[in-house]
Amino acid sequence: MVGSGWDRVPIDxxxxxxxxxxxxxxxxxxxxxxxxxxxxxxxxxxxxxxxxKTVGFRDLNGRLxxxxxxxxxxxxxxxxxxxxxxxxxxxxxxxxxHTAPATPGDLFFHIRAEREDLCFEFERxxxxxxxxxxxxxxxxxxxxxxxxxDLLGFVDGTANPTGHDIGASTLVGSEDQAFAGGSYLVVQxxxxxxxxxxxxxxxxxxxxxxxxIVSNVELPDATSGQKxxxxxxxxxxxxxxxxxxxxxxxxxxRPGQGEYGTYFIGYSRHLWVTQxxxxxxxxxxxxxxHDRLLDFSTAHxxxxxFAPAPRTLSELVEAVQA
Length: 322
Ligand code: HEM
What we know:
Elements: E1 23-31, H1 35-46, H2 48-56, E2 65-70, H3 72-77, E3 93-94, E4 99-100, E5 107-113, H4 116-130, E6 134-143, H5 164-170, E7 183-192, H6 194-199, H7 202-209, H8 229-232, E8 235-236, E9 242-243, E10 246-247, E11 250-254, E12 259-268, H9 271-283, E13 297-299, E14 303-307, H10 310-321
The structure holds protoporphyrin IX containing FE.
């Protein structure tokens, strides 16, 4: 999807287009009350590029990267007097059968590398610097599972935009000039019910997702009745334009604890696009016919963040340090 307005905006963004990595940490924090905590956070954000270099330079082939994003309430605490047009807290969705809950989160770090130790070391130093100014609300360590499969067995991420389309789908453009180059982020931690899923016939699993499991080939879209996950997650506006998001989902788990999950993370230029996907999944289209993936996957967290362009992040930091 190439939307209007994006081409004319100079590209200054965080490393949202970094390729799918082998390892990732998804770290959600809340920030303590008071100006002192905010000052510590601003100082750490100011030095983040240096911290990436400090750890990442130890193995450049490890391609360490980190995206920083802020939640709606934290954004307001910086008191810059302006905010991204669509930034707001996660809106919980109560479907007839399944719920997408909203959970706390002020700051989000998406840490990626080809090596788990790079992610670990970066996270360790980052949390050390932030100290008691933050509390960890959620921490998930993800890994690549064979040919980028989720733990339900399907290749995950195929329909992601590529090349020029990544920016057009994920970066705010001239529609909100002051925040051009930023990106809206929706994250949700899902836990899977593996045994009932494993009891389904293979062709039933394929109908639920909308792709063949081994070959990854797409199945035709149903035009009425029960729709597959990939059909419910396809958003076409009134003009017939399809709106994509960039997903960087990763499996995580602890077999010894019976924990099997998918961490969903979606970057988008327009927050409403991911919101619409969630509504179609949880409420169904037609209403009542929810995404059957949810019968085997429960959302335990839900939060919205904005990953500002580097220059906007610097402005936030300056506003607190002034
Ligand atoms: C497609 C898995 C949650 C949005 C897919 C595909 C798989 C998958 C296997 C097909 C291959 C691909 O194109 O990537 C999962 C799992 C989830 C999950 C295991 C969590 C348990 C979500 C959520 C959203 C979403 C919460 C959006 C809010 C999409 C989109 C596509 C997709 C946009 C591509 C549709 C297209 O073909 O155009 N997902 N997904 N997914 N999913 Fe998910």
